[in-house]
Amino acid sequence: MDNVLSFIEQDYDDFTMDILEYSTSIINELQQRFPTWQLFTFMKILNSREWPKESQELLWFGDNELGNVLKYYECPNFHNNIQLSAIFDINKCREEWAMFKMIITNNFASNDIEVILLLLIQDYIDVFLNIIKLIQIVYCIPFSSVECEHGFSRQNKIKTKDRNSLATNMLDLLMHVFLKGPESKEFNYNRAYTIWSSQKRRTGFK
């Protein structure tokens, strides 16, 4: 009986170690595959929805995270062995941060970041030039493959076997219509037909 229990305990220990090694291996692979994942967490401070409500807390909020984000962009960028100029001024970005939080809290607290960014570009580009550039960079990063998958799905519906000779530029235009165009009930079909029929002579049309 003792031998059986000893065997079970040993087997259980081996099983536990296998799980631990497997889990550790998965974590290490993910960290190597996505080395900047923590950077995305720091970037959340640029979304005013994440900010504290108390003004005293807001005063110092995000300083460390901003420092980590800026540290990433301090590294020089190279393309074809040529060093590219800095996208924005790191030091001025730090200086703009406190005033930026105050302006957003007092004027745009109820807006989503997409709306806030447009208003900032329109009215505050000269005041928060560097912070705005940083936000534009952050919101250019695709955090999901949904849009890409949606585009491929739409492409496959447009370019079928019967339309396999469709040129790339026309495919691009059609995808823009399907992905970004107006609702069909809002589309002016008469005007579209007029433009289409005037492009060149159409056989069978008068």
UniProtKB/TrEMBL annotation:
<dbReference type="Pfam" id="PF05699">
    <property type="entry name" value="Dimer_Tnp_hAT"/>
</dbReference>
<dbReference type="GO" id="GO:0046983">
    <property type="term" value="F:protein dimerization activity"/>
</dbReference>
<feature type="domain" description="HAT C-terminal dimerisation">
    <location>
        <begin position="121"/>
        <end position="176"/>
    </location>
</feature>
<dbReference type="InterPro" id="IPR008906">
    <property type="entry name" value="HATC_C_dom"/>
</dbReference>
<protein>
    <submittedName>
        <fullName>Zinc finger protein 862-like</fullName>
    </submittedName>
</protein>
<dbReference type="InterPro" id="IPR012337">
    <property type="entry name" value="RNaseH-like_sf"/>
</dbReference>
